[in-house]
Amino acid sequence: MPMSVETLRQHLVDAFADAEIEIEDLAGDGDHYRARIVSSAFAGVPRVRQHQMVYAALKGQMGGELHALALETSAPAKEG
């Protein structure tokens, strides 16, 4: 069974409470999403590790309920 955008969003909000999250269903099938996540949790963290953090937040559902997830992760831009 595919993962709904609401379920995906909830997993991400639970893991990254301060995040700005944008999710796009790429194929309209609940299996292929693009997510843009901006969170202070990513500050100073290499991109590969950021993506690993997102996969961990999905609690093993990547590759099962969720087939594909294109990620864009970053920390908030510093002001000043």
UniProtKB/TrEMBL annotation:
Task: Give one Pfam hit by family name.
Answer: BolA
**Source species, domain of life:** Bacteria
Transmembrane stretches in the record are: none
What the entry lists under InterPro entries is as follows: BolA (IPR002634), BolA-like_sf (IPR036065), BolA/IbaG_stress_morph_reg (IPR050961)
The family annotation for this protein states: Belongs to the BolA/IbaG family.
Q: Which PANTHER family match?
A: BOLA TRANSCRIPTION REGULATOR (PTHR46229), BOLA-LIKE PROTEIN 1 (PTHR46229:SF2)
Q: What is this protein called?
A: BolA family transcriptional regulator
